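Sanity check. The docking grid for 6-O-phosphono-beta-D-fructofuranose depends on where the pocket ends up, so I'm generating a full predicted complex first rather than guessing from homology. Inputs follow.
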Amino acid sequence: MQQRSDLKQWKALIAHENELGDVKIKSLFADDPNRFDKFHVKCENMMLDYSKQLLTDKTMEKLIDLAKACDIEGWRSKMFEGASINATENRAALHTALRTKSDDPIMVDGEDIIPKIRKAQDRMKEFSNKIRKGKKYTHIVNIGVGGSDLSSSMVYEALKHYSDREINLHFVSNIDGTHLSEVLRLIDPEKTLFIISSKTFTTQETMANAYSAKSWLQDKLNRKDVSKHFIAVSQNIELAKEFGVNDNNIFPIWDWVGGRFSLWSSIGLSFCIAIGFDNFKELLNGAYQMDQHFLKSPLEKNIPVLLAMIGVWHRNFLKLPAASLTLYDQYLWQFPAYMQQLEMESNGKSIDREGKAINYETCPTILSGIGTNVQHAYFQMFHQGTETIPCDFIMVAKTHNSIHGHHKKLLSNAIAQSKALMDGSEDNNPHKSFTGNRPSSTIIIDELTPYNLGMLLALYEHKVFVQGIIWNINSFDQCGVELGKVLARQIIDDFGKNVKDIKTDSSTLGLMKYIDNL
Ligand code: F6P
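Predicted complex below; grid placement will be based on this.
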């Protein structure tokens, strides 16, 4: 297959970018008083305003032409229907099946997966109700890493308003013993339930933390059998049992759910206990609503498609190396880490679906943080740095915590940032001049409810998927993280060895020996 950059629709966008020349966003507003009306879209409780982007009607037309030429609609159907779109691993990517309301069969390897999903959800419901009502366990510790940690801790924090405050949720992910040690200081061993969340049950960090937690508990409770305190969410039943989790305490996950797309499965058990199953279901319902929007809306009005194509415009035609996402809601403080995995683990690739090196840019560096804090950190560079960093602002219109005047101040700051980036300002003192013309989009959600959060998360999942299709890469594998894992295992073995027995470069050797000699 040819490169995407050989497509005539790609070339048309290059020519169009040249034609636009040094057009200013501000002048696009001056030329068209209806620009906001034209360039905003609403879907239920969510609105996207992309009028402050450096683009015109023609740009959008050409971006949609490119999306069509890359067969977004065809790939979208394939994903929802369960085709093996994760070709390197020969797997489907069916996170959408986890939130479907329909009982129509979805077949994977000749088997309908819907009954399995419903059964797992029933178990989650029963189990979370039991823990919430019984209060036998008031500390829940999720041990997992990457997709088995980031999304769960993000959702827990985002929906804390809905959580049972008598149940304390903790997350341990890092292999750094400090992470586990600091959590162990906070918990009461008798009243603690550990959830080992690992699809493979082989991930080094998770296994090291799980075994250390188990031996800590055995010591504290002065007994060998601590199985009542351990739950597993895994596909690897054998290893979970070998660890000491009872058969009926193992919740399923399947190979057609990718790690960073797994919060909708039993991987979400920890936060499901905290917020309750009804709220968990609402989260799924919101995601389902976004799935329907993504499936049924015309591409021109399709929020995930629009966000994705604007990102492609930035990366491949305006040649912008980074993109930013700023969240104006304190409850979303864990969103940046989740988002970085979603975007960069999915689309940080340079080999196409056919195995060829590609000759165009893919995933930008994602900078993300919480407003207003980041305004006092890296936003200086956004306003006056040498690079243009396109910004996405996410605002939540109604707060759960109304303290006199705070929320209006927060929202004013968000809107002010997008205006300052666009307008800039001139000053006789060059240090105080802002060039402006820096593009941004704003998403407003009415309120941070489980339903609306579900919509937001599914929106970004689909945005990442669309970009993966445009770039002709597989967004669902993560081969790039493997080499480091292999080398770390080798380096553990090399620590403490004689220099002459270690075959490596002088820097790697120097680092090991420096530590050995301390
Ligand atoms: O970082 C690589 C990765 O495979 C992620 O994709 C995944 O979410 C994480 O490790 C954890 O994997 P597991 O759930 O198998 O422990």
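Relevant for the grid: Residues 113-275 form a domain with the Rossmann fold fold (CATH 3.40.50.10490).
Also worth noting: The chain has three domains: 4-90+286-470, 113-275, 481-516.
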